[in-house]
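User: I'm new to structure prediction. If I give you an amino acid sequence, what do you actually give back? Let's try with this one:
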Amino acid sequence: MKKRERILRIPYDNVTVQEALERIEAFLKKDKTSVVMYLSPEVVIRARSSKFLRYFIEEADLIIPSGRWVNWALSILKRPLREPIDYSQFVKLVLKQASELGKTVYFFGGNGRTIDRAYSNLIKENKELFVVGRYRADIDRKLMSDVIKAIGKASPDYFFIGIGMPQEQFWLAENLGSINAKIVFPVEGFFELVAGNRVRFRRESYKSGDRFTRINRVAEIPLVKPLRRAWYLPLFVIMVIGERIFLRR
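Assistant: Good question. You get back a string of structure tokens that encode the predicted 3D arrangement of the chain. For your 249 residues, that looks like this:
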């Protein structure tokens, strides 16, 4: 495997969309559960101060840098991405891959009716999607063991968890061996996004290998964004500029 590149000491895989999809398909043939992780400015900053999160990322089988700010940072650092990837769009391409391969999918995350709306919208876009289960995240902790058993019994090929970061990483570290999934994908706010809990809808084309897939894309700004996250992006920008200045010396 090609040596990983790093941004602010946090690793990532500089892959194209097609290469990432091919690697994910190859994971299905492995005898272990593979982890596909995304890398955003918040993930980078959090991982620098959290040994657990950094270890989780280091051990992931595929790390996809995502979003315009990561793309900007790597351009500033003279390590441009071979192909910019928006993770929410990429997840939809993975779901398309799952349906084409006849593989099973499980959704876990979201609050209230979010997971049901997300499921309905995804099925409308991809009627061949084989979803073997879905469950919301806002449940009593006493019920969690039953949910984990249900996921394990379903034995999904693709397991998508969206309960926020780093909660989803802690959850996976604790339960990865019990859910019997081939590949797991932390997706943070993806279910809220496809459920419509975001603003400014627009359509655009997204390239996947030799073809263009038309998908719905929404702005990455949630209706209510926690204030505690507000400082991650400025800090990320400052640290990237600082590293760039250091590299010039």
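You can read the tokens as a compact description of the fold. Here is one thing that stands out. Residues 5-248 form one domain.
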